[in-house]
């Protein structure tokens, strides 16, 4: 029954690895959503920055105000782009962790399935042996009840 304990332990380990994979998958999904927000915000800020009127027909005070606004928006865009680059690097690391966790989960599950197969083969062999013993006992009882002799008459 040692194999059964090994299979039970491996099953628990597979369940723990599956939980780790699920947790990392949720983390990756959250990171992807956060990255999408960064990209959407950068796009919106770029559109806002480009919406400021410039040209010769604009009053000088409005032109100065627009230039400061564009400069501030450009700074915000650059900050968001740096944060996005950092975020994407950490997301790539998290994806690598997820791939590694999936691989460990699959490897342990393969071992568990092999042990289950071995346990099943072992159980079938025991069942066959028990059935053979029962058949032998039934044959012996029948032989003893029909003639009392075990050997063939000559």
Description:
The chain has helices spanning 2-50, 60-146. It has a single domain (3-145), classed as Orthogonal Bundle (Helix Hairpins), CATH 1.10.287. The protein is mainly alpha-helical and 154 residues long. Helix 1 packs antiparallel against helix 2. It is 88% helix and 0% strand. The mean pLDDT is 90. It contains two helices and no strands. It comes from Ralstonia insidiosa. This is Flagellar FliJ protein.
Shape: rod-shaped
State the distance separating the first and last CA atoms: 48 Å
Name of the CATH class? Mainly Alpha
> What is the second-level CATH architecture?
Orthogonal Bundle
Structural class by helix and strand composition: mainly alpha
Largest sheet: none
Named CATH topology: Helix Hairpins
The helix tally amounts to 2
Given as residue ranges, the uncertain stretches (5+ residues, pLDDT < 50) are: none
Oligomer: single chain
Protein name: Flagellar FliJ protein
Organism: Ralstonia insidiosa
Short synopsis of the structure:
The protein has 154 residues and is mainly alpha-helical.
Keywords:
Flagellar FliJ protein, 88% helix, mainly alpha, 154 residues, 2 helices
Q: How is this fold's topology laid out?
A:
Layout: H1 2-50, H2 60-146
Helix pairs in contact: 1-2
